[in-house]
Design a protein that fits this description.
With 288 residues, this protein is α/β, with parallel strands linked by helices. It folds into two domains: 55 residues, no CATH class; 217 residues, Leucine Aminopeptidase, subunit E, domain 1 (3-Layer(aba) Sandwich), CATH 3.40.220.10. Helix content is 41%, strand content 19%. It has nine helices and eleven strands. The strands form two sheets. Strands 1, 2, 3, 6, 7, 8, 9, 10 and 11 form a nine-stranded mixed sheet that branches. Strands 4-5 form a two-stranded antiparallel sheet. The longest helix has 27 residues. It starts with 11 loop residues before the first helix and ends in a 6-residue tail after the last helix. The mean pLDDT is 86.
């Protein structure tokens, strides 16, 4: 377990909530005691005990705030679950779930550590779950939905095997359980790059497609934009990326019809770095 301190004793919002509860409880207890006939010494002992209990409550609450490791949020009819998990787990390989894997704008499929890294999620997906890459390429080239979202054609593209790029956020249905989406632009140095404006644009298009086509199923994503994707030269933390994903989800008023929901899976290291207390506070009105 990776322990990272995320909420400190200087956190104003935490202190406001904690002290409000402590003073409220102490006020009620003091009022009750005032009606009881006790000696001065007993009153002092009770007062000290109450103060110690308040201090203990404060640090127990602080410990809990720092050790939150999952969260469930409600937004209208939609439920969002954020937790540690593995998108390749059998738990999510059912037709009731739509697992999402992000690709570049060309939907490249060559896993050679140049075009696609073997360690990336889409690289792992291709190596572990795609039996015939040529068939996948042919299906994408002929897919009517992708054809509606062609961005451009680069016949002189110097890297990769594909020359047609698609609009960011466009979804290709690989199977009943797997969706592929175009998330990043790809430069001549084989690097996936994205500005924050492009990232937000991608998310909005992605949510719109999810909402119109797949909202009756549980959609399972990872922290899209985190990791090897160079989002504005990696100036955004995992926590900030998660906040952007949630804000754009709310902005587009996505509605998953229950029991369908959105599941955001994080690896162990990323999950340990997420400030769930802050996320819960930011979206407190939506919390379950």
């Amino acid at each position: 377990m990776i322990l990272i301190k995320k909420v400190s004793v200087k956190n104003r919002e935490f202190n406001n909530v904690a002290f409000s509860k402590i003073t409220g409880i102490l006020g009620v207890m003091s009022a009750i005691i005032s009606f009881v006939d006790l000696s001065a010494i007993v009153r002092i002992i009770i007062l000290i005990a109450m103060l110690l209990a308040g201090v203990a409550y404060y640090f127990i609450s602080l410990h809990k705030a720092n050790n939150l490791n999952n969260l469930i949020l409600n937004y209208g009819e939609s439920t969002i679950e954020i937790k540690q998990g593995d998108i390749f787990s059998d738990e999510y390989k059912t037709d009731d779930n739509k697992r999402v894997f992000a690709f570049n704008e060309y939907f490249d499929t060559r896993v050679d550590d140049e075009i696609i890294s073997k360690g990336s999620l889409n690289g792992q997906f291709i190596n572990r779950e795609v039996w015939d890459v040529n068939d996948l390429d042919a299906r994408m080239a002929d897919d009517p939905h992708l054809k509606k979202h062609i961005n451009n054609s680069y016949k002189n593209r110097s890297v990769g095997d594909k020359h047609t790029s698609y609009e960011l956020g466009t979804i290709f249905k690989y199977s009943e359980n797997v969706l592929l989406t175009a998330m990043t632009y790809f430069d001549d140095e084989n690097q996936a790059k994205l500005t924050i404006q492009e990232y937000v644009k991608f998310l909005i298009q992605f949510w719109d497609e999810v909402n119109s086509i797949y909202a009756s199923k549980t959609v399972v994503i990872t922290l899209l934009g985190n990791g090897i994707t160079r989002l504005d030269n990696n100036i955004y933390s995992s926590n900030q990326i998660l906040e952007i994903i949630l804000w754009t989800f709310y902005l587009r008023r996505i509605k998953f019809r229950k029991p369908a929901k959105l599941v955001i899976l994080l690896n162990e290291d990323t999950n340990a770095r997420i400030n769930y207390y802050k996320i819960r506070s930011m979206f407190n009105g939506l919390q379950k």
